[in-house]
Amino acid sequence: MPSGFATFATFTDIAYAIVNVEHSFAGPAEVRLNDRHFPFAKANQILTWRRETGEELLSLFDEIYAGVRPDGAMKPGTAAVTVQQDAASRSTGIGRA
Questions:
Q1: What ranges make up the beta strands (E) of the chain?
Q2: How far is CA 94 from CA 73, 84, 87, 91, 97, in A?
Q3: How far, in Å, CA of 66 to CA of 27, rounded?
Q4: What's the whole-model pTM score?
Q5: pLDDT in tens, 35-78
Q6: Which terminal residue of the chain, N or C, has fewer Cβ atoms less than 10 Å from its own Cβ?
Q7: How far is CA 26 from the centre of its chain?
Q8: 42-to-3, 34, 45, 48, 85 alpha-carbon distances in Å
């Protein structure tokens, strides 16, 4: 079952990926198993039905935010480093200089 944050995002224009959706959720959500979107979702609002990998998450974020950043703003190989650095600074609560 999606978290409260995922449920909130579901009914907004916010880009999201809800990963590892429980199969039993398909019926109550009125979607078919393995559907990539809710019927009312936008293209950058994605559902996945299996446990995610790091590679899959990076691919999803590239897909979700493809229209947000200008072309060439980041090289494809730099996304993982950026995500890891940002996550590390948030998790420790210590900003970088």
A1: 16-18, 45-47
A2: 26, 14, 11, 8, 10
A3: 30
A4: 0.60
A5: 999 988 888 999 999 999 999 999 999 999 886 655 544 444 44
A6: C
A7: 18
A8: 19, 16, 5, 15, 29
Nearest-angstrom CA–CA distance, 47 and 72: 27
How many residues does the structure list for the chain?
Answer: 97
- In single-letter form, the type of residue at position 36 comes to R
Distance CA 36, CA 59 (A): 14
- CA 72, 73, 78, 79 torsion: positive or negative? negative
Please provide the DSSP assignment of 51-84 as one string: ---HHHHHHHHHHHTTTTSPTTSS-GGGHHHHHH
Dihedral (CA of 69, 70, 76, 78) sign: negative
Side chain identity, residue 6: A
What distance in Å separates the CA atoms of residue 58 and residue 53, rounded to the nearest whole number?
Answer: 9
Cα dihedral 87, 15, 49, 79 sign: negative
Contacts 24+ apart (CB under 8 A), 24-28: 25/1
